[in-house]
Write a structure and sequence with these properties.
alpha/beta; Alpha-D-Glucose-1,6-Bisphosphate, Chain A, domain 3; 35% helix; TATA-Binding Protein; five-stranded mixed sheet
């Protein structure tokens, strides 16, 4: 199964891949036009394919392109399949590869998979929320593939007031209206935010080029549109899914999941619902692997701080299509009862603690940049702080060593995850600082998370400001501010 996004030459590259596979006796399904990455993941299972490929560079700048590979379960390749595939490649001689396409083995796919995917998305994301006729949404695909799916899915779920940003609706790999097609960047949603103010919309949704990441903005307590981060949307979506399952009744095998650099609030919430909580390394392929590794368990939902979320297991990668629908359902239901998405998020802070996060991403290009990144990570590891903002260091988690050590007691425990170049410090008050290199870009990333109790919404502004000050103090201490 092969799909491609809006990137320059993605369609040509996808066709070339299909031709080479067919030349070597492999039957190929190829989407005839661009489609979302979550639909590719869905299609691998739906059509019972052995593997899937999508030509995309996800949220990266225009000069990038890439090649994602999926396994039979619809999830991205993970161990041990990755090493087995590389071994096969290493054992292959170039002369063994045939290049004359066998057109009889290339089957073009048009709308037949779309229908099944739309139905599955609505079934997973729709909660029959009230107030849809009175709920205004502004949507932008930022020149990407989600224009082929999200407007239709919202329509089928009953949302009639959806305004599409037409200037960004045409797929275009040059992304002419933005500096970067990444919904994590506020600038990418600037047009949508302006339109929301113009028409009095309740919610803004924007997705990246292959539609696996989503960014949303909602009305804050002052009625102004405010961009939320991936942790915030993940928290409220997960709570909504937990409440929905609670109404149906828990069977005892449910679980939710996130990654090691995402907000700790999800674990606190899962404990409150008495639902199993799992953590994975950064990257949604590891959450997809959990579903495969625990077939008797039921995955409700989960996400990561980098604006990715997955609802249920019918797709095995982050899915901005179904997640966008779920966000709209939550916001519509909240408005109908006199609340809002933002107020419901604040209620999570009241119930589980006000967790606030900050990501610092430093770009270091070229060979010298790669060396600088390695040196920064080495310095971070070899010079741990004795305390952070007055709170003594307690735990050091070294994922390269698969070990977590309590520096106060000397106790240690094994980290039961694959080795990775990630180091996390945790202090007595629960402040966490993580560092890792990016897996796809020449960047080093530092993740800061801290928390305070929140007694009521009346104290929100005060505690929010205190957390901002604390995070800035941490950045100053680490010379990252």
């Amino acid at each position: 199964m092969i799909a491609f996004d809006c990137r320059n030459n993605s369609d040509t590259l996808a066709r070339t891949v299909a031709e080479v596979l067919s030349a070597n006796g492999i039957h190929v399904y190829l989407f005839s036009a661009l489609r979302t990455t979550p639909e590719l993941s869905f299609a691998v299972k739906h059509l019972q394919c052995h593997a899937g490929i999508v030509l995309t560079a996800s949220h990266n700048p225009p000069e990038y392109n890439g090649y994602k590979v999926y396994w039979t379960d619809g999830g991205q390749i993970v161990p041990p399949q990755d090493k087995a595939i590389i071994a096969e490649i290493d054992a292959l001689y170039f002369s063994d590869v045939q290049f004359s396409p066998n057109e009889s083995l290339i089957e073009l796919i048009d709308t037949e998979v779309d229908e099944a995917f739309f139905e599955a998305s609505v079934a997973a994301g729709s909660q029959n929320a009230a107030g849809k006729d009175d709920f205004k949404i502004v949507f932008t695909s930022i020149h990407g593939t989600s224009i082929t799916a999200i407007p239709e899915v919202l329509k089928r779920a009953g949302f009639s007031q959806v305004t599409v940003i037409e200037e960004q609706a045409t797929p275009d790999g040059n992304f002419p209206t933005v500096k970067s097609p990444n919904p994590e960047e506020p600038e990418a949603l600037a047009m949508a935010l302006a339109k929301a103010d113009e028409i009095g919309a309740d919610l803004v949704v924007g997705t990246d080029p292959d539609s696996d990441r989503l960014g949303i903005a909602v009305r804050n307590l002052q009625g102004k549109m405010e961009l939320l981060n991936g942790n915030q949307t993940m928290v409220l979506m997960t709570r909504y899914l937990l409440d929905a399952q609670k109404q149906k009744g828990f069977a005892g095998n449910e679980f939710v999941a996130t990654t090691i650099v995402s907000t700790p609030m999800l674990e606190v919430m899962a404990k409150d619902y008495e639902v199993e909580f799992k953590t994975a390394l950064t990257g949604f392929k590891w959450i997809g692997k959990m579903i495969k590794d625990f077939p008797v368990s039921k995955f409700l939902g989960g996400g990561e701080e980098s604006f990715g979320y997955m609802v249920g297991d019918f797709v095995r990668d982050k899915d901005a299509v179904t997640s966008s629908l779920l966000a709209c359902e939550i916001a519509s239901a909240a408005k109908a009862k006199g609340s809002s998405f933002y107020q419901e998020l604040i209620q999570c802070y009241i119930d589980y603690g006000f967790y606030k996060e900050k990501l610092i991403s430093l770009t270091k290009k070229g060979k010298s940049g790669a060396e600088e990144i390695q040196q920064m990570l080495a310095d971070f590891k070899n010079n741990p702080p004795a305390s952070v903002q007055g709170s003594a260091l307690k735990w050091v988690e070294d994922y390269n060593e698969s070990a977590a050590k309590n520096v106060q007691t000397g106790d240690s425990k094994t980290i039961d995850l694959p080795k990775a170049n990630v180091l996390i410090y945790e202090t007595e008050d629960g402040t966490r600082i993580a560092a890792r290199p990016s897996g796809t870009e020449p960047k080093v990333k530092f993740y800061i998370t801290t928390n305070m109790p929140l007694a009521s919404s009346d104290n929100f502004a005060e505690v929010n400001s205190a957390l901002d000050q604390k995070i800035q103090g941490i950045l100053d201490e680490l010379k990252l501010g």
